[in-house]
Amino acid sequence: MSLWTSDAAAQATGGKVTVPWKATGVSIDTRTIEPGDLFVALEAARDGHDFVAQALEKGASAALVSRIPDGMDETAPLLIVADVLSGLEALGVAARARTDARVVAVTGSVGKTSTKEMLRDMLGDQGRTHASVASYNNHWGVPLTLARMPADTEYAVIEIGMNHPGEIAPLAKMARPHVAMITTVAAAHLEAFDDISGIAVEKASIMEGLEYGGSAVINNDIETAAILQSKAHDMKRRDIGFGEHGFDYVLKNVSIQGDTTVVQAEAFEKPLLFKINTAGRHFAMNGLGALACCEALGADLALAAASLGRWSPYKGRGARETIVLDPVETHLTLELIDDSYNANPTSMAAALEVLAAAEPVDDVGRVGKGRRVAFVGDMKELGSDEVPLHAGLADLPFVQELDVIHCIGPLMRHFYDALPDQRRGQWAQTSDQIDVRTSLDAGDVVLAKGSLSMKLGLIVDAIRKMGHPRSNA
């Protein structure tokens, strides 16, 4: 079944087709392109036009270009437009217009991708569901996600992110969601904003894309909730609040039971009990908001809660796995919490709280006592407050429950210096300078977290190489 015909794509973009073609997918990367994909030759770090020939050799059905690439003539299957990114945006708008899907858009300083994945699983159990891949949430990720959406989609989940003011509203207007969720507003990308209120205003602009009669699902527990509520009121959109102070979906109790989070809540004054297959109060909050989104979309709340109980985070987003250190003595293990994809003060605090609640195993390793061990890297884009925000991590009450904290990067040096001597592990400028193997032992629970540029993934890989993973899922 084709996703795009050359005629439909030409009509959507106003472009010129060289020869007729049909596409079953849309791709911007020749490394992951599939046979039948329409290759979009974006001009980013490198000019996508240089890779059109390679894409066609790999089986691409056609290429979206702004000029005929060198060495190629009009017998090649091309869709020629004035600007490739604008052409991709036009495809996204057309794909959104031709579907009757119920659409939810998710933004927030923390938890966007995890919440999107929760929604993908919950809605996917109730209808044909299309969702953003990985963190495709920017100026090309949102139109690409939309352009990939089949016409018969019943539910769509679109993640929308930002780095600077004015980015969210145009993407939200492209997605035209029926429900827009704001997971939280926190200190992230502060370099581009005067303060956290500015971030809240930008996050609230997702409501500008809401369809008539649409709903905004808002975290009522954050200090900027009033800014979000005011935006919903001004837009004349329904405001659904969630959290401990939620007035529609109220968080009553969160219980961490091993690797499971059990949540007691109320939905419009009716009891709501659900669990999540990983530990973390932040997952409970996001799960509650995601359930609110499902019901607002018209999905079955009870079925959604059951589906949520089977969800667990994936690589780099809080995924947990057991590393077996000895192929014979398989009880010699440590537990890894891979939260290495990104970090800001809110998500770092949440991750450290999860580690503090973890249960190490005693009497299995050289040390004898299982430990809670953290490897943490710099949190980027925090502006003028970056030093106190790093040093202030030492004041979090649950840090005293941690045994060893290894710090990576010049900013994390301030956290390291604020720690008591008995909790200080190693400090290094970069992840590849940390000695992982001698830092860990059987029975330990280990967290790796930092901004993506700090490459905490190297720490995760080094831990996995100490043995072999056995997924907790």
Automatic annotation (TrEMBL):
Residues forming the Mur ligase central domain are: 106-293
Task: Report the subcellular localization.
Answer: Cytoplasm
Q: Which GO terms describe its molecular function?
A: ATP binding; UDP-N-acetylmuramoyl-tripeptide-D-alanyl-D-alanine ligase activity; UDP-N-acetylmuramoylalanyl-D-glutamyl-2,6-diaminopimelate-D-alanyl-D-alanine ligase activity
Quickly give the catalysed reaction: D-alanyl-D-alanine + UDP-N-acetyl-alpha-D-muramoyl-L-alanyl-gamma-D-glutamyl-meso-2,6-diaminopimelate + ATP = UDP-N-acetyl-alpha-D-muramoyl-L-alanyl-gamma-D-glutamyl-meso-2,6-diaminopimeloyl-D-alanyl-D-alanine + ADP + phosphate + H(+)
Q: Where on the tree of life does the source sit, at the highest rank?
A: Bacteria
> Which species does this protein come from?
Ascidiaceihabitans donghaensis
What family does this chain come from, according to its entry?
Belongs to the MurCDEF family. MurF subfamily.
Instruction: Cite the InterPro entries for this sequence.
Output: Mur-like_cat_sf (IPR036565), Mur_ligase_C (IPR004101), Mur_ligase_C_dom_sf (IPR036615), Mur_ligase_cen (IPR013221), Mur_ligase_N (IPR000713), MurCDEF_CellWall_CoF430Synth (IPR051046), MurE/MurF_N (IPR035911), UDP-N-AcMur_synth (IPR005863)
Q: What class of enzyme is it?
A: ligase
Q: What is its EC number?
A: 6.3.2.10
Function statement = Involved in cell wall formation. Catalyzes the final step in the synthesis of UDP-N-acetylmuramoyl-pentapeptide, the precursor of murein.
Q: Which residues form the Mur ligase N-terminal catalytic domain?
A: 24-95
What pathway is it annotated to? Answer: Cell wall biogenesis; peptidoglycan biosynthesis
Q: In the UniProt record, which is one GO cellular component term?
A: cytoplasm
Single biological process term from Gene Ontology:
cell wall organization
Matches recorded under Pfam families: Mur_ligase, Mur_ligase_C, Mur_ligase_M
Q: What is this protein called?
A: UDP-N-acetylmuramoyl-tripeptide--D-alanyl-D-alanine ligase
Positions with a binding annotation for ATP: G108, S109, V110, G111, K112, T113, S114
Entry annotated with the keyword Cell cycle = yes
Q: Which NCBIfam families match?
A: murF
Q: Which residues form the Mur ligase C-terminal domain?
A: 334-451
List keywords of the entry alphabetically. ATP-binding, Cell cycle, Cell division, Cell shape, Cell wall biogenesis/degradation, Cytoplasm, Ligase, Nucleotide-binding, Peptidoglycan synthesis
